[in-house]
From TrEMBL:
CDD domains: BPL (cd16442). NCBIfam families: birA_ligase. One of its GO terms (molecular function) is biotin--[biotin carboxyl-carrier protein] ligase activity. The keyword Membrane does not apply. GO terms for cellular component: cytoplasm. It comes from Zosterops lateralis melanops. Belongs to the biotin--protein ligase family. Residues 427-625 form the BPL/LPL catalytic domain. This is Holocarboxylase synthetase. Gene3D superfamilies: Bira Bifunctional Protein, Domain 2 (3.30.930.10). Keywords: Ligase. The lineage of its organism: Eukaryota, Metazoa, Chordata, Craniata, Vertebrata.
Length: 698
């Protein structure tokens, strides 16, 4: 019995595939014992503060209110919520017309006001690479060229220049330029095609510049601001000597392939906005690299008609002499390219890929640790191997056993007394973990590929009371939503948690809600600490953790597998705790709060916050299973960033709608004038799930 082609397509492409949309889905998956991947995701020294148990839960504080309105679906805060009463008494007029939906008036979000620039406080001493506050994405545009080799070629040279732990690199396809919301979600656009730029795409690129974006042109036809190209075919596919101007040092001479075009001398427009960086060392001294600025928001472009992205292995290299010239200039080519990228605001400090390290089997509960070792005896082979299609684990007692660490085979040290780490304290984790089941068996490693793979070979057979969690200091292949990369520098809280949910339960019928609960748990883990309740940490639908509504500092990835009547769910969550790059971290927010309020709140650590997050999550799941969405939505709305916000439906120019809440299945609800309240879902773009929202057909 197999899935129909339609259902197969839906399962792979629809993030929010729900039971009420496809009634037979669960039955078929149960029969197949197949996998339903809800890739619901997701671009970081501690003093013990306050012992758990937590202060009285926000959920408990609102218990009476919830019971009184048990039959209602809460769209936003209760009108009597203490925080709401302190906010400005501003409402969204259009929502008032939806009284039939029992929507209370919407308070404005208590995030920073429009007059407070997101980076003003950064000038007070907190240094970051990404001052623009944009997601650290580099996009490569190749026009209609479909050759993967060209993308890999450009990506490879950029990877060798920029800090690999600070940026991710993606291809921007032709069809995405007008369709997807990449403009506000990228730091740098690299245009690497000689094709003419379509008018609509050129307009988008100029919009990107006007909003502070940076553009690097590799022998492209893209120009603006009066700059013109002149064709000189005799220069094409030949190596020529360039003279490159340097700010505080003599000009550099190097040999590069040239596109066959140069920039016109005597360019039109504002000369102060156009600077020549490099010329050919020929009789005409033709300009081949120019720097242009655009607008008042810091937009700038460096356009090169010299092939900075090509080396001596290029198919355009015709002679041995050209090969030798390019080889001798290779180090200078990288020097020039790094200077260009640095000028455009990127960090080119090199960082080596860390070596994979062994895993430690840890537990805050000695009894459960011994029970797990007993279980292992009957569930590994004679060599201690637990095979898996993703990562096989080899359980050994100590490091004396020589086992190589590879992406597919990792040793697990079972003797806890040998464990020590400067980045993770088992004692701190134990102090803050107050769960019945979750997070009791811990696989810890300094460096791994991705924590999402470490539990795969254990989770289906391990007794439920031995809740599994994997924690890493660094990941080399962190995973994000829709194939995105999750950057994982030191200072990030990185973990994957296993939970099991009965199919026939409140949460089992609303699996996409898990991402909301995890995001909420991260925020509540910080803001439920006495004194930290006003730290501007918030949730962004559906699965991001934000500083106010300005910058992302964490995210969630959920993978679900249905076996018979139980969902086995791997929850990957990562959030910046002590790393200011590539965006911002929780300890930055604490330092900011201390400066502004004159407080002395102490910095937090990843081990503390992972444990608190898991503890809060278990409580949220219990409340949800008992009361459904209404049990958790008041707290969720207290912390989300969307109050009083508008979105456009279907496209960048689509109709405006007000965000009013989420429905019982986790979909975003919006109010469009004249149409009442509707549930919407993302269109599948990988840049911003709040852009181009689609109203599903009923």
């Amino acid at each position: 019995m197999g899935l129909s082609p339609f259902l197969q397509t839906e399962i792979s492409s629809n993030t929010f595939l729900l039971p009420f949309l496809v009634p037979n889905l669960y039955l078929q998956l149960s029969a197949l014992q197949g996998t339903w991947s809800d890739v619901c995701c997701y671009s970081n020294p501690f003093f013990y503060l306050y012992p758990l148990p937590f202060p009285k839960s926000k959920l408990e504080e609102e218990k009476e209110q919830e019971e009184a309105g048990a039959g209602e679906h809460h769209h936003l805060h209760h009108s009597s919520c203490h925080e709401c009463l302190q906010l400005e008494n501003t409402t969204i007029e259009s929502v008032k017309f939806a009284s039939a939906e029992n929507i209370p008036e919407l308070p404005e979000d208590c995030s920073s006001t429009a007059g407070e620039k997101g980076d003003e406080w950064l000038q007070k001493g907190v240094k970051r690479i990404n001052l623009a506050g944009k997601p650290p994405n580099i996009l490569i545009y190749l026009g209609s060229e479909a050759a993967k080799g060209r993308f890999e070629q450009v990506k490879s040279v950029l990877r060798e220049c920029v800090d690999a732990e600070s940026y991710t690199i993606y291809q921007l396809h032709q069809e995405q330029v007008l369709r997807d919301p990449w403009i506000d979600n990228s730091l740098l656009l690299v245009i690497a095609t000689e094709e003419p730029i379509p008018e609509g795409s050129h307009k988008q690129f100029m919009t990107f510049l006007s909003r502070g974006g940076k553009i690097l042109g590799f022998s492209s036809s893209f120009t603006f601001g009066g700059v013109q190209l002149k064709h000189k075919n005799k220069l094409r596919k030949a190596v020529h000597e360039l003279l490159v101007s340097k700010k505080d040092s003599p000009e550099v001479k190097l040999n590069l392939l040239v596109s066959g075009c140069v920039f016109e001398e005597g360019m039109k427009g504002d000369g102060s906005r156009v600077k020549v960086w490099s010329r050919l060392n020929n009789a005409d001294k033709d300009p081949v690299i120019v720097h242009l600025t655009h607008g008042s928001s810091g937009g700038e472009a460096i356009l090169s008609q010299a092939h900075l992205e090509l080396d001596s292995s290029s198919m355009d290299v015709q002679t041995e002499e050209d090969f030798n010239l390019l080889k001798m200039s290779n180090s200078k080519r990288y020097e020039v390219l790094k200077e260009i990228l640095t000028c455009l605001g990127l960090s080119c400090e090199s960082s080596e890929i860390p070596v994979l390290t062994p895993i430690y089997l840890l537990s805050p509960d000695e009894e459960i640790h011994l029970a797990f070792l007993k279980w292992l005896e009957g569930n590994v082979d004679a060599e201690g191997l637990r095979p898996s299609s993703k990562v096989s684990l080899k359980f050994i007692s100590s490091c004396e056993s020589k086992v190589e660490v590879t992406p597919s085979l990792m040793p697990v040290l079972t003797e806890m007394s040998s464990f020590s780490s400067q980045h993770f304290s088992l004692e701190t984790y134990q102090q803050h973990l107050q769960t019945k089941k979750l997070g009791k068996i811990l696989l810890f490693t300094e460096v791994t590929t991705t924590t999402m793979n470490l539990l795969d070979g254990l989770m289906f057979e391990l007794p439920e009371e031995m809740g599994l969690i994997a924690v890493a200091v660094r990941q080399t292949q962190g995973k994000g939503r829709g194939g995105n990369v999750w950057l994982s520098p030191v200072g990030c809280a990185l973990s994957t948690l296993h939970i099991s949910i009965p199919l026939h339960s409140n949460l089992g019928q609303r699996i996409p809600f898990i991402q909301h609960l995890v995001s909420l748990a991260v925020v509540e883990a910080v803001r439920s600490i006495p004194g930290y309740q006003d730290i501007e940490l918030r949730v962004k639908w559906p699965n991001d953790i934000y500083y106010s509504d300005l910058m992302k500092l964490g995210g969630v990835l959920v993978n679900s597998t249905l076996i018979e009547t139980t969902f086995h769910i791997l929850i990957g969550f990562g959030f910046n705790v002590n790393n200011s790059n590539p965006t911002i971290c929780i300890n930055d927010l604490i330092a900011k709060f201390n400066r502004e309020e004159g407080t002395e709140l102490k910095a937090l650590s990843a081990d503390c916050l992972i444990a608190r997050t898991v503890t809060v999550l278990e409580r949220l799941i219990e409340v949800f299973q008992e009361k459904g969405p209404n049990g958790v939505l008041p707290l969720y709305y207290k912390y989300w960033v969307h109050s009083g916000k508008q979105v456009r439906l279907r496209s960048e120019d689509g109709p405006l709608a007000w965000i009013v809440g989420i429905d019982d299945y986790g979909y975003l609800q919006v109010h469009q004038e004249g149409k009442g309240v509707e549930s919407v879902h993302p269109d599948g773009n990988s840049f911003d799930m709040l852009r181009n929202l689609i109203v599903p057909k009923h």
